[in-house]
Write a structure and sequence with these properties.
single chain
């Protein structure tokens, strides 16, 4: 996580960093009780993991998540989904935007 959180907040987000932010955001959501625990997190102590993150790392996750779904100028992953067409892009973005909104409410 230190490697990812050390990236500048305003720079272009490559696909790997965007995917990492999406995955960690899901763990944050489960730990804060704003999302049910998916099968992919079986055996993972979400609350325990989240307790190891610094405020800066948590802040990076939210900032990176926002950049990931903003536009093709800020995110390679957005650009890749955009190539699939507007319907696929919207379907990909919707749950991430919802997750971002719910995480902003828990601080």
């Amino acid at each position: 996580m230190d490697d990812y959180a050390s990236h500048p907040d305003g720079g272009y987000l490559d696909a790997d960093d965007a995917q990492t932010a999406i995955a960690v955001a899901e763990i944050l959501a489960v730990a804060h009780g704003v999302a049910p625990k998916p099968v992919q997190l079986d055996g993972i102590d979400a609350a325990g993991y989240v307790s190891t993150l610094s405020p800066e790392q948590k802040s990076w996750v939210l900032a990176a998540l926002e950049r990931a779904v903003s536009d093709s100028d800020t995110s390679e992953l957005y650009e890749l989904w955009e190539e699939n067409g507007p319907e696929d892009l919207a379907a990909w973005r919707a749950p991430i935007l919802s997750r971002l909104a719910s995480l902003k409410t828990v601080g």
